[in-house]
Amino acid sequence: MEKYQLKTDIMCQMCVNKVKPHFDASEKIGEWEVDLKSKDRILTVNAENLDVISQQLEIAGYKGEVLSS
Questions:
Q1: 29-35 β-sheet, strand order
Q2: Of 6, 19, 27, 35, whose CA is between 20 and 30 Å from 42?
Q3: Domain coverage including residue 21
Q4: Total structural domains within the chain
Q5: What's the CATH code of the domain at 42?
Q6: 43 and 32 Cβ atoms separated by less than 8 Å
Q7: How many CB atoms lie within 10 A of CB 12?
């Protein structure tokens, strides 16, 4: 798995709670966290690839823009 960081539109803990079941259920996603204190709401996630992250975010109703991988 690789570490990715994305700028997201996840704004609060309720948003994190909407994403959590999707990320936690995926075997292709490992540890992850969202920094709600940062201006850009940075999502840091270990995953097999970026597509998996994007798909799960989209299913939950959110978007992310890659900062680094």
A1: 29-35, 42-47, 2-8, 64-68
A2: 27
A3: 2-68
A4: 1
A5: 3.30.70.100
A6: yes
A7: 11
* Partners of 34 in the β-ladder: 43
CB 47 within 8 A of CB 2: yes
**DSSP label of 11:** -
The burial class, CB within 10 Å (0-12 / 13-18 / 19+), for 31 is exposed
Alpha helices (H) in the chain, listed in sequence order: 13-25, 50-60
Can you tell me the distance from the alpha carbon of 17 to that of 19, in angstroms, rounded to the nearest whole number? 5
CB atoms within 10 A of CB 17: 10
Predicted structure pTM score:
0.88
